[in-house]
Amino acid sequence: MLDNRRFIARRCAQYFHEGDVVNLGIGIPSACSDYANPTIAFQTENGLIGVGPVSKKLAICDTFQNAGGINFNPVMGASAFDTAYSFVVIRSGRMAATVLGALQVSEDGDIANWASPGRAFGMGGAMDLCNGAKKVIVAMELLAKNGDKKIVKKCSYPLTALHCVDHIVTEQCVIDVTPEGLVLREVRQGKTPEDIQAAIEPDLIIPDDWTYMEE
Amino acid sequence: MDIGKVRTREQIMACFKDGQTIAVGGQAGAYMPWNLLDMLEESGAKHLTIISIDATNPGFAISRLIENGQVDKMITTHIGTNPIASKLMLDGKLEIELCPMGSFMERLRCGGGGLGGVLTKTGLGTIVEEGKQIIEVKGEKYLLEEALRADVALTRARFADPLGNLAYHGTGTASHPVIATCADLSIVQCDLYCDLNELGVDQIRVPGMFVDMIYTGEQDSNRIIGRIKTAQILKEEAKNNA
Which value does ipTM take for this structure? Predict the structure, then answer.
């Protein structure tokens, strides 16, 4: 069985379509590429479209490293550019999706993922990605390590971007952010919609056609 | 023989002074101008303002400057990989100006290209907009991000010729071609030093007019696979041998 992080990543990868250019954040999102259709092109912020698998031995090369410093092999058809141009790509409106982690997501689709009280790591490219990508997919565990709710009415941590999140994928559920509110789409086997409601702050819309997540 | 813009270690080290603003190319400890950063560290220059995408990992490059107390301020996008920088920031010993990465790059591009700034939607409605002008264009709101320049730029290129024409490879391009243009003194560490016209005219990304000094460097350390990776490989080898 997949661990929670890989389980979440596999579900996120189902949102990608043939030929999409997608950016993956560090942490859980970076595992999405293991489950994606091979026609998906992954972008790295430092400046390349067509990030392939982690490189090994002779193929390790200091001029193919992703934004997290991991060596990779570029795929056929890859293209490189500078970091300023990389954000032209991100803001262009042509990037199909970004998958990123979050500390908090609000019912309006606001996201906070770069600072919490007493700790600031910086936003890196997240603010541009949330504003630029056509689809913003949050990949995170439903509750914080200390048990705090992460899906909230209003984010209390510094915001990354407003009204941008489309889908929230956790190890227990899949939730869509809609103008009407948060809509429950999928629930993990062994859990009920009531369990999910109890683990989040805003009121969930529970349609009749919700399904179980694929194990 | 005319050596063009190639300079020695000593000549480059003499350029570093207290209080300078220094922009550094590279990201996440990948393909950084290691030799130039070593020289900056060795020069002992203090009260520096460092402009860099991140603060790298503890023990490497920019982090060593921070650990030595040579840095007063950083203009950056991310310090999450460096707990030392985070702690110094929270203790009030290191000033950190955080900027979204896309805006950060555009500010440097503007600084190098004679523009006053750039309008972006990134950061609207967040802490980033504090103290900045919001400008409406065609009914849409944008944040004004002002241009950024440095006294010295330290970057790395795959290829350089005696005039300082630069060419890059893969993600070794990164922020280097932009940062190489944004400072009064632009110093480049190159992996491979070429003759004039050895690089095709279409291959050149940064024309030599932007470059003041070239360090052709210690070839061995130029070939290493980034120091972090090298450290990891050595650790793995030690484990396998044990």
Answer: 0.94
